[in-house]
Structures are given as structure tokens and as C-alpha cells.
Design brief:
Helix content: 40-55%
Strand order of the largest sheet: 5-6-7-2-14-13-8
Oligomer: single chain
């Protein structure tokens, strides 16, 4: 079952846009304890031409009503609703081009850019303007010739919808007239094969009976998993908290309000090689790498530095809140066509939370991190927990208001160790107004604790780690652990491959 998207506005007969209510799910992000911002960190292979980038924003992004409207409290009732009110946009009010000058005694431009992005997490967007801005840093780093940070308030939409809109501004570097190509799920082709198999099996009564037995067993398993997962979600919101670790805030911990954003880019071919070696999915490998990286970091802090006994790690409760999109992705091509026709692009927030266990322990075989991730994800797929938790949140929203709903969501996130999310990017190299993209690292700030986001692009994948500055003193080391974890898992996969050949 898929939740229908929310249309933000519609055209009136005279061509003007009608004011529209902000959806309740988007309105949640204006609550004080749930004020979340999304940032898309983009590295470029050439210095950025600011005027060229402005032209693309003017002709594409500003046609979207949420990027050219104010979010105004609806005073017609006392329910705290907000309306989107179309307004004129001055791009100069939304684009910042700081003059970053590296210290002559310390030419570490990577640190300079990292500090600039982290400082953004201490600020919020001006509500007197549409809630987005773009920061262009024409400073060469080890990652790119220039960096830009596209910042959105989460009320504009979720990560999937905003990335689709953002990518509609890009074109293939090999063909400047073609839109980017996103990965296509193989579920449709696999379902077609299952249909043909079912037709052939109808000739055999025994096979048909066996199918119904299997379906009944799967249904019982689906029901059981869903009930357990929903109860776990409720328990987490009420009292069930993860064990204390370097990634969780201790009692009395006061947030520094500033978050560090660390990103590391790895080879997508390496991830696919591991995927084939373990007969799993790319998502399984990404979760396996995350578990291995966190295990390396915690083992270093707990065992090598603090000297605590290893069994304390094995008994540690460590879980991730996984963000699940409940809406079919509109797609880059669909968004682009709607923009060209001046049609209202369907956007909004439509996602749910799923809580999954993490294996934070030193394993002798690094491939076991991926295998355990596959087991976890296979079970998660055979559950309706994401849909149920969505409706739980809607129930709380209806009967307890925005404050109750945000309190529930914030408690679930704060009671788990990290937030995990991933977005699929273009399959090929793309450019924006002649600027070839080097990497894309979407993430967000406003949530407590640790967040890990993964985004694929061409033949690479970027892990973006966001963490409260006062929680982890060496976030760059944690970023390096993601790269080291991939290398260890890849080497284990190569050893397995060599063993098969011998």
C-alpha cells in the first residue's frame, strides 16, 4: 500500500496560484523540538559560475511553488495550520558566495569548508522568505574544485522528493540535452516472472496447494513480524533506550547545537563486488559497512583506549532508526516535464520510521557484517511496520496535535543510536550549467545524535556522517573508519573469490 502524495498548489483560471495548506506531516517540522533542515553538499570538478547557476535556479527551481512561497500561519482557525503563500523571489537573498580565505599558516582548505558547513547547523532559515538557500564556496579542496551547499527546510519535502527536484536541474555530461538516469528497481521484472511461474503451476494441483500453504505461512510470518516491530516502536518511544556508547548522549549531556558533517566517497564497483560475493543487495552492503565502521570506532574507544572488557560490546543494545519512503518516487523526468509545463509538482513529506538492530562487535570475518545486515533487512522487508508506524504517527497527530506527534518522533530517534538513510543518485556523470558534478552528499541537521546518509552517483557512493560536535571529538576518524571498513570487507570478498578459484 502506498500513501498518496500531497499536491501543494493548483492553478486558478487567471494563471495565478492558489494558496494551499501545508500538509500536517510537513507542518510537524516547524515545532521547536523538530526543526530539521536538509542540506545537499555538492562537489564540482570546476569553479562555479554563479550567474550560470542563478539562471538554472530561476528557470527550474523557482517554478516549484514550495520554493517560491512563504509559509504563513493560518489565523483563520486555532489549529496551528500553515499556508503556502506565493511571493516574488529575489535570488540574491537566497544565494551566498562567501570570500573564504585560507590562513597562510594553515592551508587546510578541507577544514575550512568543513567548518563553514558545520557553522550552518547553528543557524536556521529566515521564515520571512521561502525556506531554502544556496551557499557557493569557490575553494579547492581534496574532494573538488568547488563546493556548494543547497539547504532546505524539511517542511519543503522529504529527501526523495527534494533530490528528484534537484536532479531535474542536471543533465548528462555525455549528452547535455538528456536528463539523468536513476536506478530502476528490479521488482517489476521479478514480479512478472513470478506471474508466469504461477500460470504454469496451475496445471499441477499439488503445486497449487503447496503455494497456498507457503502463502499462509508467509502471511503469518508477516503478521507476527509487524506486531513485534510495532510493539518495539511503541516501547522505544516510551522507555526502551539503547546502551550507552560514544554515539549516544549520556544523561545530562547538553548539545553543542553545532554538528559536524563528514563525507567519504568510495567505489560503487567495490560495493557491487561485495554484493555479488555475498548474494545480497547494495543496501545490505551499505548497512554492513556502517556496522563494521561503527564497530571499529567503538572497539578503539572502548577496548584499546579505555580497556573495557570485550563482552560489554557484545551485550550492547545498538539500533538504527531507518527512514523509509512510503511514496513512489516521482522521478527526474516527471519532475522536469511538470516544471516545463508550469504544473504544480507533487511534493511533501511522506515517510516512516523502522527500527532495526545493529551488530556492533568485532567479527573475525568482515563479510559477516554484510551477512548479518542481509538477515536484518530481509526480515524488515517482510513486515508492515513502516506503514503501521506512519499511521501511529497520524493517530497521535490527530488526537494529540503537532506537539504530541513531534514528541513521539523525537523520542524514538533519541532512544536509538543512529538514523540511517540512503538515496539513489544518477547512474552516469552529470552537469549543472556546464559544471560537472564530482560528488553528492545529502544529509540533515536538527536531530539528536548520529546520522548516516548514503548516496550513489555514477561509479561511486558517498557516506555522509552528521554528529553533534560535543558527542564525538574525532568525527574525521569515524569517516575514515567507513573507508577502512569497506577495504576490509572487500579484501575478505577477494579472499573468498581466490579460494573458489584454487
Amino acid at each position: 500500500m502506498v500513501i498518496k502524495p500531497v499536491r501543494t498548489s493548483k492553478k486558478l483560471g487567471n494563471g495565478e496560484e492558489e494558496e494551499a495548506l501545508l500538509s500536517p506531516n510537513s507542518r510537524l517540522f516547524h515545532e521547536p523540538n523538530y526543526n530539521v533542515h536538509i542540506i545537499a553538499i555538492m562537489g564540482w570538478k570546476v569553479p562555479v559560475d554563479v550567474d550560470a547557476m542563478k539562471g538554472e535556479l530561476q528557470h527550474k527551481v523557482l517554478k516549484h511553488p514550495r520554493f517560491s512561497s512563504l509559509q504563513v500561519m493560518d489565523e483563520s482557525d486555532g489549529n496551528g495550520k500553515m499556508r503556502l503563500v506565493p511571493t516574488s523571489v529575489n535570488l540574491d537573498d537566497h544565494i551566498t558566495v562567501p570570500d573564504l580565505k585560507p590562513n597562510p599558516n594553515n592551508m587546510d582548505t578541507d577544514k575550512l569548508v568543513e567548518d563553514y558547513i558545520s557553522n550552518l547547523s547553528t543557524t536556521t532559515l529566515d521564515t520571512s522568505k521561502p525556506l531554502w538557500d544556496l551557499h557557493i564556496l569557490n575553494v579547492k579542496t581534496s574532494h573538488a574544485k568547488a563546493t556548494s551547499i543547497f539547504r532546505f527546510h524539511h517542511s519543503l519535502g522529504d529527501g526523495v522528493s527534494l533530490i528528484s527536484l534537484l536532479l531535474s536541474c542536471f543533465r548528462k555530461s555525455s549528452d547535455p540535452t538528456s536528463l539523468p538516469t536513476l536506478p530502476v528497481s528490479s521488482s517489476s521484472s521479478s514480479s512478472k516472472g513470478k506471474s508466469n511461474l504461477s500460470i504454469s503451476n496451475r496445471k499441477n494441483i499439488c503445486s497449487l496447494i503447496w503455494q497456498y500453504v507457503v502463502k499462509l505461512r508467509l502471511f503469518i510470518s508477516l503478521l507476527f513480524n509487524t506486531i513485534v516491530d510495532v510493539l518495539l516502536f511503541v516501547a522505544t518511544a516510551l522507555f526502551l533506550k539503547d546502551s550507552q556508547s560514544p554515539f549516544t548522549a549520556a544523561q545530562g549531556f547538553k548539545s553543542s547545537t553545532r554538528q559536524r558533517f563528514i563525507y567519504r566517497t568510495v567505489s560503487l564497483d567495490d560495493i557491487k563486488f561485495i554484493k555479488n560475493a555475498t548474494n545480497c543487495t547494495v543496501n545490505d552492503v551499505m548497512l554492513g559497512i556502517t556496522q563494521a565502521a561503527l564497530s571499529r570506532y567503538i572497539h578503539r574507544r572502548y577496548v584499546e583506549v579505555e580497556g573495557k572488557r570485550k563482552f560489554s560490546l557484545e551485550r550492547m543494545r545498538c539500533r538504527a532508526t531507518v527512514i523509509v519512503n512510503l511514496r513512489p518516487a516521482l522521478g527526474v523526468h516527471a519532475v522536469s516535464k511538470m516544471i516545463e509545463k508550469n504544473a504544480a509538482v507533487i511534493q511533501g513529506n511522506c515517510f516512516a520510521f523502522v527500527i532495526i538492530p545493529l551488530n556492533i562487535v568485532q567479527l573475525e570475518n568482515p563479510l559477516d557484517y554484510v551477512r548479518k545486515a542481509k538477515t536484518t533487512m530481509d526480515r524488515t522487508k517482510h513486515s508492515l511496520a513502516s506503514l503501521c508506524t506512519f499511521y501511529v504517527l497520524q493517530f497521535i497527530l490527530k488526537f494529540f496535535g503537532f506537539k504530541g506527534a513531534t514528541t513521539l518522533a523525537a523520542r524514538v530517534v533519541s532512544q536509538t543510536t543512529l538514523i540511517f538513510s540512503n538515496v539513489a543518485g544518477p547512474l552516469e556523470e552529470v552537469s549543472w550549467s556546464g559544471h560537472p558534478l564530482a560528488f553528492l552528499a545529502p544529509t540533515c541537521y536538527g536531530h539528536p545524535g548520529l546520522m548516516v546518509h548514503a548516496c550513489s552517483y555514477a561509479k561511486q557512493l558517498t557516506f555522509a556522517v552528521a554528529v553533534d560536535e560535543g558527542l564525538i571529538p574525532d568525527p574525521n576518524q569515524l569517516g575514515d573508519d567507513f573507508v577502512d571498513a569497506l577495504m576490509l570487507i572487500k579484501e575478505a570478498a577477494l579472499s573468498k573469490f581466490r579460494t573458489k578459484i584454487d
